[in-house]
Amino acid sequence: MAILEAPARSGLASLLNLQAVDVAQRAALWTRSVKSFFPGLSVRELGGTPDRGSISGMPFGPGRLWTVVSPSLLVSYDPSALCDDHNDVFSVMMQLHGSTTACQKQRRCTLRPGEFCLIDSRLSFELEVAATSSQFMFVQMPRHAVLARHPYLERRTAELFDPADAGARLLRGLLLSVLEQATLLEDDQRASTLSAIIQLLGAPRLPAGRKADEVSWRVRAALACIDAALSDTAVSAEQIAKMQGISRRRLDEIMIETVGASLTAQIWIRRLSQAATDLADPRCAGRSVSQIAFAAGFEDPAHFTRAFKRRFGCTPREWRLRAGAASAPLPPLDS
Q: What pTM was estimated for this model as a whole?
């Protein structure tokens, strides 16, 4: 079964392997490693001395790719540990072996092999492994990039997506391929692949039992239209509503109710998010800030800089410098 075979061929850099550690040191080292590699995360309960456990990972464009073999435990996450908004991430987590239970904002799901959910670093959450061990992968993505394209996903964390849905199968296949091929990709290819993962988060159907009629096509269609015309400085909310055969007022109502922002606001949010993504993308290192602003649909670089600073709390150049520092590889943790 591909889900079981892919991790063995992934070749991600091993940052910690408890089987290479003296038994007496394993519990303390695992607890310390969790805090070190995943700021804000702490072990609340550990089921005795772990027999096995490993953490592997690598930079992946402006995000990171991880695989974890976890012993039986309960971990909790405190978002106040992240003081830098630039490091906010949205993660897609997929189970490979065993099971893991995720809880966030009164939502709870148990992942089994091939199933996945989303986790938001802005909110506290818990992960629990009840059995002897669990193996899962997750991709950390810039939060702004995910929610600019799929803002409704902010309310969908810790919810199990239907594994039989065609869109879910498509995303699952991509994640497994990424895990297998990641180390063979160059930096620019990893950045492109991360963009594809973010875009494909819109493919799976929303969890069953939710009101998804207008979300599933009105909102998604509007956001897709914005993406398609992002560099067009003349694109307007009226044009997008007309494409869908609905009044601007009604579409604004749907957007505000569903994602908390009007069409016009979504256009600007999406443009700023695209610019932020490009500034952090190694493929765009040779492009100036002004060129990136123009490509995102801004006509005035000075206006772009002001709008960018209001949204992200720093200038575009500062954002680019931080992105370079954040993408540096993590060293293995000394035992």
A: 0.79
